[in-house]
Amino acid sequence: MILKFTDVDYTYHTLAGETEALKGLNFDILRGQFVSVIGPSGCGKTTILSLAAGILQPTGGEITRGGGDCGYMLQRDALFPWRTVEENIFLPLEIRGTKNAAEKSRALALAEKYGLKDFLKKRPGELSGGMRQRVALIRTLAAGAELLLLDEPFSALDYQTRLEVCDDVQAIIKNEKKTALLVTHDISEAIALSDKVIVLSARPARVVAEHDITFGDGTPKSRRNSGRFAAMFEKLRDELGI
Questions:
Q1: Of 164, 201, 214, whose CA–CA distance to 24 is shortest?
Q2: Which CATH class is domain 3-75+147-240?
Q3: pTM of the full predicted structure?
């Protein structure tokens, strides 16, 4: 187990009053799993990521972490446009003060392993949207993160690129034996990418259902092509009330 939420509550406090975002939230993630969270807009999905990362602290309940650092991938790739791909990948090492020869070599090895060797001296503006997201993922992996928190990282991409990048990112995460927690509005994406899908209620969020995705060979393409895909899609849509 790498992450466990036990009866977690979270309430936002503002001058206008209180907003209860989460109430009695329970779920766990095993090491090596790819887990997606889906739910209505505004139900607190991004709040869950902030709590998992330790950016926020729960107002009730307990969050147990199984060790290892967290890495965060945002809706936008957040690459610095004035830095080269190589310099962007080195950024976490600079922040942590670990930009030594060994760490740089490890980061470059990851970049070359996943097809960035010929792009290291280019700047983000010279890359496609899909390639930029790959750089963002390699930057996160270069920091040594064990748990990757993905906040709708594919939402800004066009449909075809989104499919390609989803497959690409899932393959890299699985190949590197990392754990991922993705929040998304896209039911198809959640099914295709995940070992488990968690369905949330409207705010204050609680877990409505959890589903282990066991069909296909574990790749997004095989899951999309499975005869069980459509039935799972309809089940999740019903649980979301849409």
A1: 201
A2: alpha beta
A3: 0.91
